[in-house]
Amino acid sequence: MPTFAGSKFSSKEFHQNSNSNIVTVDVGGQLFQTTEHTLSLAGSKSLFSKISSSDHVIIPFIDRDPELFSILLSLLRTGNLPSKAKTFDIQDLIFESQFYGIENLLINSQSNPSQLDAFNLEKSLVFPLSGRDSPSAISTTPNGSLHVAHGSKITSFDWSLQRKTTILTQFTAIDSLLSLSPSVAAAGATDFSGLQIIDLDKGHVKQTLSWENVTRSGSTVQAIGASPEFLFTSFESSRRNSNCIMIYDLNDCLRPVTKIGHYEIFGADLDSAIPSTKLQWVSSHNLLMASGSHSGPSGVSGNIKFWDIRTGDVVLELKEKVDCFSDVTVSDTLSAMFKVGVNTGEVFVADLRSMNADIPWVCLGEGRKVTSGKKEGLGCKVETHGNQVICSKGGNVELWSEVLIGSVQKQTVDYRESLGRT
């Protein structure tokens, strides 16, 4: 990117070849050269597009910071921010990107999974939350903004994590939270009837979704999930004698579409008594994963079901009795399912390519670990990001990554446990 920092001439004295694909721009006294194609990547509504389509005989002058311009020009070329961008305040980059009309590109660069350096993670920010309540649920949006439920409040941060707003809800505590848009979220609790659709900007409830069970008692929310088209909600009756998963149309004012997994509890049928406490859409198989567990005198048992929402049938069901999951998740990228054993606290993986009920769990850690009688995995969470698997254990984090060894893909036995206590 040629720049001419020493130039003191007026931009009107510079001319360029109108037949050339090269575009020269004077920003704050520095000349930058790029191509029409690069400028077109900014979109038709951006200032870059206007520069690209303007008369090239006279070099356009922009009275802005040339150093910030060079960073945004590099962003246009590569889709990523250059390393020197770290020396600038993110708010300065935001204001500048808004001026040029490319804030969306800046957001995409910050939320790009390829930007995650899995084995070089460190704590970079502590979120300032109002009050003394600990976070109970967190949800992100595609544009990078973040919503955090703590106590009866929801605090929202913009994509730069620089600005926040807090609203008070009707809940005593929020157990489930899912962002439907940057300004709208679905929230529910295990001790409060109904799923609330909340306008986070105005702080009011737009809509309440409920499931009318046989006993006509209230229905509490156990879990929330979503696909691009549907909202999934796991309800349990207030009497805890029935449960189901309701499906709503996200593109039709949350109209109820159907329900799956409706169970009425009779006698000692323990399996039917377990509501789904986690819902995850598996786009690679067009299936909904629903998991739930129950702690009883004989230990912790649970089940993991994969539902075909079109037919309402269970395609695959795994029953967990030995070292049942504390948490479970599916990775589309790795075509695998991961769990944290509630007894051992170890991470296990199962291959989902065959979708077979007999698929074995393979321990990624100490496979022969002897349990101490304590539930080492209690409260642990596991999530995936690209080909990375992240597991929280207390105040620490383990990171597992897929590596290519020769022509065979295997899971590494190395992990990072250096993020410290939060």
TrEMBL record:
Pfam families according to UniProt: Beta_prop_At2g24240, BTB_2
Domain BTB, residue spans: 21-117
Cited SUPFAM superfamilies: 3-carboxy-cis,cis-mucoante lactonizing enzyme, POZ domain
Classification lineage: Eukaryota, Viridiplantae, Streptophyta, Embryophyta, Tracheophyta
Pathway given in the UniProt record: Protein modification; protein ubiquitination
GO BP annotations listed: protein homooligomerization
Protein name: BTB/POZ domain-containing protein
Classification via InterPro entries: BACURD1-3, Beta_prop_At2g24240, BTB/POZ_dom, SKP1/BTB/POZ_sf, T1-type_BTB, WD40/YVTN_repeat-like_dom_sf
UniProt feature coiled coil, ranges: none
PANTHER family reported for this sequence: BTB/POZ DOMAIN-CONTAINING ADAPTER FOR CUL3-MEDIATED RHOA DEGRADATION PROTEIN FAMILY MEMBER, PROTEIN BINDING PROTEIN
